[in-house]
Amino acid sequence: MESLIKFVQDEFVPKKDFPEFSAGDTITVYYEIKEGEKTRTQFFRGVVIQRRGAGALETFTIRKMSGTVGVERIFPINMPALQKIEINKKGKVRRARIFYFRGLTGKKARIKEIRS
Length: 116
Known about the structure:
By secondary structure, the chain is mainly β. The protein has one helix at residues 2-12; strands at 26-35, 38-52, 59-66, 69-76, 82-89. It has a 5-stranded antiparallel beta sheet with strand order 4-3-2-1-5, with no helix packed on it.
């Protein structure tokens, strides 16, 4: 049964070419929003907290600070409204899921950057 699901995902779900990113990276996600008959592009810039799932069901969570309030958003990797993903900084973290980042404020909430 799993091989049948994998076959259908590989054949019929369109693949988008996004850059490789992981937890700790700061990225900008551009996505389309429909308001009535108009469509516009909006972006969401923040730190990737986690990537979960595999294949067509993969999602990633981004966290940003909006004033003093933390805002998190979950994006499916195959969302049709996703236009592009830009990597702003590559971060160096030791975990695949950095939920401890939610409790950090100020200078402690900085992630060490990988220089390439």
